[in-house]
Amino acid sequence: MSSYFKDISKIQYEGVDSNNPLSFKYYDEDKVILGKKMKDHLRFATCYWHTFTWPGLDPFGGPTFERPWMQQGDPIEKAEEKLDEAFDFFDKITTPFFCFHDRDISPEGKNYSETQKNFFHIIDLMEKKLSKSKVKLLWGTANAFSHRRYMAGASTNPDPEVFAYKAAQVKDCMEATMRLGGQNYVLWGGREGYETILNTNMKLEMNNLARFLELVVNHKHKIGFKGQILLEPKPHEPTKHQYDFDSAACLALIRKAGLENEIHLNIEVNHATLSGHNFEHEIAYAIANNALGSIDINRGDTLLGWDTDQFPNNPLELLMPFYHIFSNGGFKQGGLNFDAKIRRQSIDPEDLFYAHIGGMDVAARSLIAVEKMINDKELSSYIKNRYKKWDQDLGKFIHSKEGNLETIANKVISENIEPEPQSGQQEYLENILNKYL
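User: That's the sequence. What structure does it adopt?
Assistant: C-alpha coordinates below.
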Protein backbone atom coordinates (compact mmCIF):
# COMPACT_ATOMS: atom_id res chain seq x y z
CA MET A 1 0.00 0.00 0.00
CA SER A 2 1.74 3.19 -1.18
CA SER A 3 1.57 6.27 1.05
CA TYR A 4 4.70 8.38 0.57
CA PHE A 5 3.22 10.28 -2.40
CA LYS A 6 -0.40 10.11 -1.18
CA ASP A 7 -0.87 13.91 -1.12
CA ILE A 8 0.17 14.32 -4.76
CA SER A 9 -2.22 13.85 -7.68
CA LYS A 10 -1.44 12.82 -11.23
CA ILE A 11 0.53 15.57 -12.97
CA GLN A 12 -1.43 17.27 -15.74
CA TYR A 13 -0.55 19.66 -18.56
CA GLU A 14 -1.87 23.13 -17.67
CA GLY A 15 0.14 25.37 -20.01
CA VAL A 16 2.52 28.28 -19.53
CA ASP A 17 -0.04 30.49 -17.77
CA SER A 18 -0.50 28.04 -14.89
CA ASN A 19 1.00 28.89 -11.50
CA ASN A 20 0.60 25.32 -10.25
CA PRO A 21 4.13 24.00 -9.62
CA LEU A 22 2.82 20.43 -9.87
CA SER A 23 1.78 20.78 -13.51
CA PHE A 24 3.41 20.70 -16.92
CA LYS A 25 3.82 24.04 -18.70
CA TYR A 26 5.24 22.76 -22.03
CA TYR A 27 5.01 18.97 -21.95
CA ASP A 28 1.66 18.22 -23.55
CA GLU A 29 2.10 14.50 -24.18
CA ASP A 30 -0.49 14.26 -26.96
CA LYS A 31 0.62 17.41 -28.83
CA VAL A 32 1.75 16.44 -32.33
CA ILE A 33 5.30 17.53 -33.17
CA LEU A 34 7.03 16.50 -36.41
CA GLY A 35 4.22 14.08 -37.16
CA LYS A 36 4.21 12.23 -33.82
CA LYS A 37 2.90 12.81 -30.33
CA MET A 38 5.34 14.49 -28.01
CA LYS A 39 5.39 11.49 -25.68
CA ASP A 40 6.31 9.20 -28.59
CA HIS A 41 9.24 11.42 -29.60
CA LEU A 42 10.70 12.02 -26.15
CA ARG A 43 9.97 8.61 -24.63
CA PHE A 44 10.80 9.75 -21.09
CA ALA A 45 11.89 7.24 -18.47
CA THR A 46 12.19 7.57 -14.69
CA CYS A 47 15.27 5.86 -13.30
CA TYR A 48 14.83 3.58 -10.31
CA TRP A 49 18.28 4.18 -8.79
CA HIS A 50 18.61 7.94 -8.29
CA THR A 51 14.88 8.43 -7.75
CA PHE A 52 14.22 5.71 -5.17
CA THR A 53 17.54 4.18 -4.13
CA TRP A 54 20.07 7.02 -3.78
CA PRO A 55 19.92 8.18 -0.14
CA GLY A 56 21.38 11.67 -0.55
CA LEU A 57 25.08 10.88 -0.20
CA ASP A 58 27.89 12.99 -1.58
CA PRO A 59 31.69 12.58 -1.33
CA PHE A 60 31.73 14.48 1.96
CA GLY A 61 28.41 13.66 3.63
CA GLY A 62 26.09 10.81 4.51
CA PRO A 63 22.42 10.17 3.68
CA THR A 64 19.94 13.02 3.95
CA PHE A 65 16.80 11.28 2.70
CA GLU A 66 14.65 9.50 5.27
CA ARG A 67 12.14 7.74 3.08
CA PRO A 68 10.19 4.86 4.62
CA TRP A 69 11.68 2.16 2.39
CA MET A 70 15.20 3.28 3.34
CA GLN A 71 14.70 2.59 7.04
CA GLN A 72 15.91 -0.47 8.95
CA GLY A 73 13.87 -3.63 8.43
CA ASP A 74 13.65 -6.83 6.48
CA PRO A 75 15.46 -6.11 3.14
CA ILE A 76 12.86 -7.91 1.03
CA GLU A 77 9.95 -6.16 2.72
CA LYS A 78 11.68 -2.83 2.17
CA ALA A 79 12.25 -3.70 -1.50
CA GLU A 80 8.55 -4.52 -1.83
CA GLU A 81 7.63 -1.21 -0.19
CA LYS A 82 9.95 0.67 -2.55
CA LEU A 83 8.34 -1.09 -5.51
CA ASP A 84 4.87 0.04 -4.41
CA GLU A 85 6.01 3.64 -4.03
CA ALA A 86 7.90 3.59 -7.33
CA PHE A 87 4.86 2.54 -9.32
CA ASP A 88 2.72 5.13 -7.56
CA PHE A 89 5.28 7.72 -8.67
CA PHE A 90 5.42 6.38 -12.25
CA ASP A 91 1.65 6.59 -12.60
CA LYS A 92 1.53 10.15 -11.23
CA ILE A 93 4.48 11.65 -13.13
CA THR A 94 3.32 9.89 -16.37
CA THR A 95 6.71 9.15 -17.87
CA PRO A 96 5.93 6.39 -20.39
CA PHE A 97 8.91 4.31 -19.24
CA PHE A 98 11.25 3.49 -16.36
CA CYS A 99 14.70 1.89 -16.04
CA PHE A 100 16.44 -0.12 -13.32
CA HIS A 101 19.63 -1.81 -12.16
CA ASP A 102 19.15 -5.26 -10.65
CA ARG A 103 20.52 -4.14 -7.27
CA ASP A 104 18.19 -1.12 -7.22
CA ILE A 105 15.15 -3.31 -6.96
CA SER A 106 16.35 -6.19 -4.75
CA PRO A 107 19.03 -6.76 -2.11
CA GLU A 108 22.13 -8.94 -2.26
CA GLY A 109 21.92 -12.26 -0.42
CA LYS A 110 24.50 -14.37 1.39
CA ASN A 111 25.46 -16.03 -1.89
CA TYR A 112 24.47 -15.76 -5.54
CA SER A 113 21.63 -18.28 -5.24
CA GLU A 114 20.01 -16.18 -2.52
CA THR A 115 20.65 -12.97 -4.46
CA GLN A 116 19.03 -14.53 -7.50
CA LYS A 117 16.02 -15.62 -5.45
CA ASN A 118 15.59 -12.08 -4.10
CA PHE A 119 15.86 -10.61 -7.59
CA PHE A 120 13.27 -12.84 -9.22
CA HIS A 121 10.90 -12.40 -6.29
CA ILE A 122 10.80 -8.66 -7.03
CA ILE A 123 10.65 -9.32 -10.78
CA ASP A 124 7.53 -11.43 -10.18
CA LEU A 125 5.92 -8.54 -8.31
CA MET A 126 7.08 -6.02 -10.90
CA GLU A 127 5.52 -8.07 -13.67
CA LYS A 128 2.16 -7.87 -11.87
CA LYS A 129 2.58 -4.11 -11.43
CA LEU A 130 3.29 -3.66 -15.12
CA SER A 131 0.13 -5.52 -16.06
CA LYS A 132 -1.92 -2.85 -14.28
CA SER A 133 0.09 0.25 -15.15
CA LYS A 134 0.59 2.27 -18.34
CA VAL A 135 4.33 2.55 -17.70
CA LYS A 136 6.70 0.26 -19.62
CA LEU A 137 10.31 -0.79 -19.19
CA LEU A 138 12.75 1.13 -21.38
CA TRP A 139 15.76 -0.87 -20.24
CA GLY A 140 17.33 -2.93 -17.52
CA THR A 141 20.97 -3.26 -16.50
CA ALA A 142 23.15 -5.02 -13.94
CA ASN A 143 25.05 -3.20 -11.19
CA ALA A 144 28.53 -4.66 -11.59
CA PHE A 145 30.42 -1.84 -9.91
CA SER A 146 29.13 -1.11 -6.37
CA HIS A 147 30.03 -4.31 -4.51
CA ARG A 148 33.62 -4.70 -3.33
CA ARG A 149 34.03 -7.78 -5.53
CA TYR A 150 34.10 -5.35 -8.46
CA MET A 151 36.71 -2.96 -7.05
CA ALA A 152 39.16 -4.05 -9.79
CA GLY A 153 36.53 -4.14 -12.52
CA ALA A 154 33.99 -6.69 -13.69
CA SER A 155 34.65 -8.14 -17.14
CA THR A 156 38.13 -6.56 -16.96
CA ASN A 157 38.92 -7.99 -13.52
CA PRO A 158 42.20 -9.94 -13.12
CA ASP A 159 40.19 -12.75 -11.49
CA PRO A 160 38.05 -14.85 -13.89
CA GLU A 161 35.72 -15.69 -10.99
CA VAL A 162 34.61 -12.05 -10.95
CA PHE A 163 34.08 -12.19 -14.73
CA ALA A 164 31.94 -15.30 -14.23
CA TYR A 165 29.96 -13.71 -11.40
CA LYS A 166 29.13 -10.72 -13.61
CA ALA A 167 28.16 -13.10 -16.41
CA ALA A 168 25.62 -14.79 -14.13
CA GLN A 169 24.29 -11.44 -12.98
CA VAL A 170 23.92 -10.07 -16.53
CA LYS A 171 22.30 -13.29 -17.77
CA ASP A 172 19.59 -13.04 -15.11
CA CYS A 173 19.05 -9.34 -15.66
CA MET A 174 18.83 -9.72 -19.45
CA GLU A 175 16.26 -12.47 -19.10
CA ALA A 176 14.26 -10.43 -16.58
CA THR A 177 14.38 -7.41 -18.90
CA MET A 178 13.04 -9.51 -21.75
CA ARG A 179 10.32 -11.00 -19.55
CA LEU A 180 9.17 -7.52 -18.49
CA GLY A 181 8.98 -6.30 -22.08
CA GLY A 182 12.11 -4.13 -21.90
CA GLN A 183 13.01 -2.47 -25.17
CA ASN A 184 16.77 -2.28 -24.52
CA TYR A 185 19.47 -3.77 -22.33
CA VAL A 186 22.30 -1.49 -21.18
CA LEU A 187 25.90 -2.45 -20.37
CA TRP A 188 27.15 0.14 -17.89
CA GLY A 189 30.84 -0.32 -17.18
CA GLY A 190 31.43 1.72 -14.08
CA ARG A 191 34.82 0.21 -13.24
CA GLU A 192 35.94 -1.18 -16.60
CA GLY A 193 39.34 0.48 -16.54
CA TYR A 194 42.40 0.73 -14.31
CA GLU A 195 43.88 2.98 -11.63
CA THR A 196 47.56 2.24 -12.30
CA ILE A 197 49.35 0.60 -15.20
CA LEU A 198 51.80 -0.93 -12.67
CA ASN A 199 49.45 -3.86 -11.99
CA THR A 200 47.55 -3.96 -15.29
CA ASN A 201 47.65 -6.24 -18.35
CA MET A 202 45.77 -3.88 -20.66
CA LYS A 203 45.72 -6.20 -23.66
CA LEU A 204 44.18 -9.05 -21.66
CA GLU A 205 41.65 -6.76 -19.99
CA MET A 206 40.48 -5.30 -23.30
CA ASN A 207 40.29 -8.76 -24.86
CA ASN A 208 38.19 -9.95 -21.92
CA LEU A 209 35.88 -6.95 -22.28
CA ALA A 210 35.45 -7.73 -25.99
CA ARG A 211 34.72 -11.35 -25.06
CA PHE A 212 32.05 -10.25 -22.62
CA LEU A 213 30.34 -8.14 -25.28
CA GLU A 214 30.37 -11.20 -27.54
CA LEU A 215 28.80 -13.37 -24.81
CA VAL A 216 26.03 -10.81 -24.22
CA VAL A 217 25.12 -10.61 -27.90
CA ASN A 218 25.17 -14.40 -28.24
CA HIS A 219 22.79 -14.71 -25.28
CA LYS A 220 20.50 -12.08 -26.71
CA HIS A 221 20.02 -14.19 -29.82
CA LYS A 222 19.78 -17.44 -27.86
CA ILE A 223 16.85 -16.22 -25.76
CA GLY A 224 15.21 -14.29 -28.61
CA PHE A 225 15.48 -10.84 -27.03
CA LYS A 226 14.37 -8.25 -29.60
CA GLY A 227 15.65 -5.18 -27.77
CA GLN A 228 18.80 -3.22 -28.45
CA ILE A 229 22.05 -3.95 -26.62
CA LEU A 230 23.50 -0.61 -25.56
CA LEU A 231 26.98 0.23 -24.26
CA GLU A 232 27.27 3.40 -22.16
CA PRO A 233 30.36 5.62 -22.43
CA LYS A 234 31.73 6.51 -18.99
CA PRO A 235 34.88 8.64 -18.45
CA HIS A 236 37.10 8.94 -15.39
CA GLU A 237 34.72 8.17 -12.54
CA PRO A 238 35.43 6.11 -10.65
CA THR A 239 38.48 4.73 -12.49
CA LYS A 240 41.24 7.02 -13.77
CA HIS A 241 41.53 5.28 -17.15
CA GLN A 242 38.23 3.93 -18.50
CA TYR A 243 38.16 1.66 -21.56
CA ASP A 244 34.65 3.00 -22.29
CA PHE A 245 35.77 6.65 -22.00
CA ASP A 246 33.57 8.19 -24.74
CA SER A 247 31.57 7.28 -27.85
CA ALA A 248 34.72 6.81 -29.92
CA ALA A 249 36.36 4.53 -27.35
CA CYS A 250 33.19 2.46 -27.03
CA LEU A 251 32.89 2.09 -30.78
CA ALA A 252 36.53 0.95 -30.90
CA LEU A 253 35.69 -1.76 -28.35
CA ILE A 254 32.58 -2.78 -30.24
CA ARG A 255 34.47 -2.99 -33.52
CA LYS A 256 37.30 -4.93 -31.86
CA ALA A 257 34.68 -7.52 -30.95
CA GLY A 258 33.20 -7.38 -34.48
CA LEU A 259 29.82 -6.34 -33.08
CA GLU A 260 29.22 -2.97 -34.75
CA ASN A 261 25.92 -4.24 -36.15
CA GLU A 262 24.81 -5.60 -32.77
CA ILE A 263 25.58 -2.95 -30.13
CA HIS A 264 24.61 0.72 -30.07
CA LEU A 265 25.37 3.46 -27.54
CA ASN A 266 23.51 4.84 -24.53
CA ILE A 267 24.93 8.37 -24.20
CA GLU A 268 24.74 10.47 -21.05
CA VAL A 269 25.02 14.27 -20.97
CA ASN A 270 27.16 14.46 -17.83
CA HIS A 271 29.48 11.70 -19.06
CA ALA A 272 29.97 13.59 -22.33
CA THR A 273 31.11 16.74 -20.54
CA LEU A 274 33.37 14.81 -18.15
CA SER A 275 35.10 13.25 -21.17
CA GLY A 276 36.00 16.72 -22.46
CA HIS A 277 33.33 16.74 -25.15
CA ASN A 278 29.95 18.37 -25.22
CA PHE A 279 26.71 16.42 -25.49
CA GLU A 280 26.04 17.38 -29.10
CA HIS A 281 29.46 16.05 -30.16
CA GLU A 282 28.78 12.64 -28.63
CA ILE A 283 25.33 12.54 -30.22
CA ALA A 284 26.57 13.64 -33.64
CA TYR A 285 29.48 11.18 -33.50
CA ALA A 286 27.17 8.29 -32.64
CA ILE A 287 24.72 9.24 -35.42
CA ALA A 288 27.55 9.58 -37.95
CA ASN A 289 28.55 6.01 -37.10
CA ASN A 290 24.97 4.61 -37.04
CA ALA A 291 25.39 3.86 -33.35
CA LEU A 292 22.90 6.02 -31.43
CA GLY A 293 20.60 3.93 -29.28
CA SER A 294 19.32 5.88 -26.28
CA ILE A 295 20.04 8.85 -24.00
CA ASP A 296 20.57 9.44 -20.29
CA ILE A 297 19.37 13.01 -19.92
CA ASN A 298 20.93 15.08 -17.13
CA ARG A 299 23.59 17.76 -16.65
CA GLY A 300 26.72 18.39 -14.62
CA ASP A 301 27.95 21.37 -12.65
CA THR A 302 30.80 23.26 -14.31
CA LEU A 303 32.21 24.17 -10.89
CA LEU A 304 32.35 20.56 -9.66
CA GLY A 305 34.52 17.82 -11.10
CA TRP A 306 32.32 14.78 -10.64
CA ASP A 307 29.17 13.27 -12.06
CA THR A 308 26.57 15.44 -10.28
CA ASP A 309 23.67 14.02 -12.32
CA GLN A 310 21.42 17.06 -12.09
CA PHE A 311 18.13 17.39 -13.93
CA PRO A 312 18.29 19.38 -17.20
CA ASN A 313 17.12 22.98 -16.80
CA ASN A 314 18.34 24.85 -19.90
CA PRO A 315 16.56 24.32 -23.26
CA LEU A 316 19.47 25.88 -25.16
CA GLU A 317 21.80 23.10 -23.97
CA LEU A 318 19.49 20.50 -25.53
CA LEU A 319 18.73 22.37 -28.74
CA MET A 320 21.57 21.08 -30.93
CA PRO A 321 21.58 17.54 -29.50
CA PHE A 322 17.84 17.34 -30.16
CA TYR A 323 18.32 18.83 -33.62
CA HIS A 324 20.73 16.03 -34.51
CA ILE A 325 18.49 13.36 -32.99
CA PHE A 326 15.18 14.42 -34.46
CA SER A 327 16.44 15.55 -37.87
CA ASN A 328 17.82 12.01 -38.19
CA GLY A 329 14.56 10.22 -37.42
CA GLY A 330 14.50 10.33 -33.62
CA PHE A 331 14.46 7.32 -31.32
CA LYS A 332 13.33 3.89 -32.42
CA GLN A 333 13.66 1.79 -29.26
CA GLY A 334 15.60 4.23 -27.10
CA GLY A 335 14.41 7.29 -25.23
CA LEU A 336 15.29 9.95 -22.66
CA ASN A 337 16.06 8.39 -19.30
CA PHE A 338 16.30 10.81 -16.37
CA ASP A 339 19.56 9.48 -14.96
CA ALA A 340 19.39 12.40 -12.56
CA LYS A 341 19.01 12.95 -8.87
CA ILE A 342 17.55 15.77 -6.82
CA ARG A 343 19.89 17.71 -4.57
CA ARG A 344 20.54 16.26 -1.12
CA GLN A 345 18.81 19.25 0.47
CA SER A 346 15.62 18.52 -1.51
CA ILE A 347 14.10 16.18 1.04
CA ASP A 348 10.32 16.50 0.46
CA PRO A 349 8.23 14.06 -1.64
CA GLU A 350 7.20 16.96 -3.90
CA ASP A 351 10.84 17.63 -4.80
CA LEU A 352 11.01 14.44 -6.87
CA PHE A 353 8.03 15.69 -8.87
CA TYR A 354 9.37 19.23 -9.30
CA ALA A 355 12.59 17.81 -10.73
CA HIS A 356 10.91 15.54 -13.25
CA ILE A 357 8.35 18.16 -14.24
CA GLY A 358 11.13 20.67 -14.87
CA GLY A 359 13.18 18.23 -16.91
CA MET A 360 10.20 17.15 -19.00
CA ASP A 361 9.19 20.75 -19.67
CA VAL A 362 12.74 21.72 -20.67
CA ALA A 363 12.92 18.80 -23.12
CA ALA A 364 9.48 19.68 -24.49
CA ARG A 365 10.51 23.32 -25.06
CA SER A 366 13.62 22.13 -26.90
CA LEU A 367 11.59 19.76 -29.08
CA ILE A 368 9.13 22.53 -30.02
CA ALA A 369 12.05 24.75 -31.01
CA VAL A 370 13.72 21.95 -32.96
CA GLU A 371 10.56 21.41 -35.00
CA LYS A 372 10.87 25.04 -36.19
CA MET A 373 14.57 24.57 -36.92
CA ILE A 374 13.94 21.46 -38.99
CA ASN A 375 11.02 22.99 -40.90
CA ASP A 376 12.84 26.30 -41.57
CA LYS A 377 15.84 24.40 -43.00
CA GLU A 378 18.17 27.35 -42.38
CA LEU A 379 20.84 25.28 -40.68
CA SER A 380 20.54 22.23 -42.92
CA SER A 381 20.60 24.40 -46.06
CA TYR A 382 23.67 26.26 -44.83
CA ILE A 383 25.56 23.02 -44.15
CA LYS A 384 24.49 21.52 -47.47
CA ASN A 385 25.75 24.61 -49.31
CA ARG A 386 29.04 24.59 -47.37
CA TYR A 387 29.84 21.08 -48.59
CA LYS A 388 28.26 21.34 -52.06
CA LYS A 389 31.57 21.00 -53.92
CA TRP A 390 31.83 17.40 -52.72
CA ASP A 391 28.90 16.64 -55.04
CA GLN A 392 30.71 18.26 -57.95
CA ASP A 393 33.46 16.95 -60.26
CA LEU A 394 36.49 17.12 -57.97
CA GLY A 395 34.67 15.75 -54.93
CA LYS A 396 33.32 12.85 -56.94
CA PHE A 397 36.73 12.18 -58.48
CA ILE A 398 38.44 11.98 -55.06
CA HIS A 399 36.03 9.20 -54.06
CA SER A 400 36.12 7.40 -57.41
CA LYS A 401 38.21 4.40 -58.36
CA GLU A 402 40.40 6.69 -60.48
CA GLY A 403 41.20 8.88 -57.51
CA ASN A 404 44.59 8.28 -55.87
CA LEU A 405 47.31 10.55 -54.54
CA GLU A 406 49.03 10.75 -57.92
CA THR A 407 45.94 11.51 -60.03
CA ILE A 408 44.63 13.97 -57.47
CA ALA A 409 48.00 15.73 -57.37
CA ASN A 410 48.05 15.91 -61.19
CA LYS A 411 44.66 17.64 -61.11
CA VAL A 412 45.97 20.29 -58.75
CA ILE A 413 48.66 21.14 -61.32
CA SER A 414 46.71 20.68 -64.55
CA GLU A 415 43.64 22.55 -63.34
CA ASN A 416 45.65 25.17 -61.43
CA ILE A 417 43.74 24.53 -58.21
CA GLU A 418 44.36 27.34 -55.70
CA PRO A 419 41.80 27.05 -52.86
CA GLU A 420 40.33 30.24 -51.43
CA PRO A 421 39.33 29.90 -47.74
CA GLN A 422 35.68 30.54 -46.95
CA SER A 423 34.28 31.99 -43.72
CA GLY A 424 32.80 29.49 -41.28
CA GLN A 425 30.41 32.24 -40.05
CA GLN A 426 30.10 30.78 -36.55
CA GLU A 427 28.71 33.98 -35.05
CA TYR A 428 26.07 34.25 -37.78
CA LEU A 429 24.98 30.67 -37.12
CA GLU A 430 24.89 31.19 -33.35
CA ASN A 431 22.57 34.14 -33.89
CA ILE A 432 20.27 31.95 -35.97
CA LEU A 433 20.26 29.31 -33.23
CA ASN A 434 19.35 31.78 -30.51
CA LYS A 435 16.23 32.99 -32.28
CA TYR A 436 14.54 29.61 -31.80
CA LEU A 437 14.38 30.07 -28.04
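The longest strand covers residues 136-141.
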